[in-house]
Design goal:
- By secondary structure, the protein is an alpha+beta fold.
- The protein has one domain: Lipoprotein localisation LolA/LolB/LppX (outer membrane lipoprotein receptor (LolB), chain A).
- Strand 8 (about 110-115) and strand 9 (about 125-130) form a beta hairpin.
- A 10-stranded antiparallel sheet has the order 6-5-4-3-2-1-10-9-8-7, covered by helices on one side.
- The chain has helices at about 1-15, 85-95, and strands at about 20-30, 35-45, 45-50, 60, 65-70, 80, 105, 110-115, 125-130, 135-145.
Length: about 160
């Protein structure tokens, strides 16, 4: 009986965590007017960090409850923000389908097309299409390694 309980515990524990996704990628946003922004993306299950390289921009941190923007040039300044175009929500929701991504998603009035990389292990490109926004996000050099949980704190911000 004891062996069956231990086996059941391990099966439940590992099946719950078998698709736990921790990934770090470089990203590039490309807008319809040809402008672009680059940065680094961290995902640890339901937590997300989307950090622009430019010191004039910000880092978005979603801690599984709220979305905060931290200024890159003064990390003591942060504020609660609204995901106006549902980009962060879309990233989180699409990533939760790992490893079985769909080719198309629809969030409100926004269509999202997903392209998978050659290794079929993560997203290569997301295309956001709506009346308000047309944007492509390319993910490159993705690494599936343990992500430091402290990277998801906006109060005790850690530079990366």
């Amino acid at each position: 009986m004891k062996k069956k309980f231990i086996l059941l515990f391990f099966i439940l524990f590992f099946s719950h965590n078998i698709f736990a996704l921790e990934v770090t990628c470089q990203f590039e946003e490309v807008y319809m007017d040809g402008s672009n922004q680059q940065g680094i993306f961290f995902l640890d299950n339901n937590k997300l960090r989307y950090q622009y390289n430019s010191p004039q921009l910000y880092t978005l941190i979603y801690d599984n409850f709220e979305l905060h923007a931290v200024q890159n040039n003064n990390t003591n300044i942060h504020q609660l923000v609204i995901d106006q175009f549902n980009i962060v929500k879309s990233l989180k929701d699409i990533s939760s389908d790992y490893p079985n991504f769909k080719k198309n998603y629809k969030f409100s009035n926004q269509k999202v097309i997903v392209e998978i990389n050659e290794n079929r292990n993560f997203i290569k490109r997301l295309v956001f299409k709506s009346e308000q926004i047309n944007l492509s996000i390319y993910f490159q050099d993705c690494q599936f390694t343990k992500v430091n949980p402290k990277l998801f704190s906006y109060k005790n911000f850690i530079n990366y």
